[in-house]
Amino acid sequence: MRMNLVIDIGNSHIKLATFNGKGNLVEDFRREKSAFPEIISMIEKIPAQKAIVSAVGRLVPEYRDIFIKSFNELVFLNKNTPLPVKVLYKTPETLGLDRIAAAAGAHLIFPGSHVLIIDMGTAITIDLLTARGEFLGGNISPGMQTRFRALHDYTDKLPMVAADTTYPEFGTDTGTAITAGVQQGITYEIDRYMDVYEQLYPGCKFIITGGDAGFFVSRLKRPIFAQPELVLAGLNSILEFNTSGEKQ
Q1: According to DSSP H, which parts of 76-173 are helical?
Q2: Which domain holds residue 114?
Q3: pLDDT tens digits, residue range 98-145?
Q4: DSSP characters over 168-189
Q5: What's the CATH code of the domain at 5?
Q6: Where does a domain end: 25, 56, 76?
Q7: Residues 105 and 141 reside in one and the same domain
Q8: What is the Cα–Cα distance from 213 to 228, expressed in whole angstroms?
């Protein structure tokens, strides 16, 4: 069976995912970045013919050489990599590879549709992909944990609190005031984005992904497509685009 390998190297974690020839996710793994030797050992045992590597920062030459020797076809994602979507961002050199991959994943899931991509992690990114496959850009705001941390770190008396699924509509003490304020604020923020973009782009689809997506997906007032592995699917789409002749 033909197999693709996706290698997503972030600031602190590495994700590996295998996809079959039909573009379906077969298996995925997540490891601490410090476990890179273990990751290399795993990669050498995966029977993949093609691979894509997306890395935050510079890749150690030793590991780069191992990747090159391990696969018949290999793509290192960078700002010059041909893409299945057109990036219209004014400063593409500053655009995160994860946002590019998410856009490619959205294009794969909803081809021919406007798509608002909501990625909820350390930061919340709200990105727009047009029906013509054009990535226009988007907005960035602090994620849930970042907001909790900022309130604690930049004030003298506010405590550090954690996400709480039983938070009230209005806080009745300092802890619940912070919990409700942050979590309700994010919910209202995303709901408003969805309202506005549905008016601006009739028929717009909505995708939510990222570590905190599961926490908020049931709290939003509009139906939204949850795809936890959107970035991995997008990376596989970019790999196929560069190795199957589509870019011609």
Answers
A1: 97-109, 144-153
A2: 79-248
A3: 999 999 999 999 999 999 999 999 999 999 999 999 999 999 999 999
A4: -SS-SSHHHHHHHHHHHHHHHH
A5: 3.30.420.40
A6: 76
A7: yes
A8: 7
User: Which one of the listed residues 8, 98, 119, 127 is annotated catalytic?
Assistant: 98
From 189, 192, 143, 193, select the one nearest 163 (Cα to Cα).
143
At a CB cut-off of 8 Å and minimum separation 6, what does 10 contact? 33, 56, 98
Question: Is 98 an active-site residue?
Answer: yes
CA 108 to chain centroid, in Å, comes to: 14
CB 77 within 8 A of CB 231: no
139 and 160 assigned to the same domain: yes
Cα separation, 209 vs 120, in Å, equals 6
How would you classify the pairing of strands 115-120 and 205-209? parallel
Q: What is the pLDDT of residues 31-89, one digit of tens each?
A: 887 887 888 888 888 889 999 999 988 887 888 888 898 899 999 999 899 999 999 99
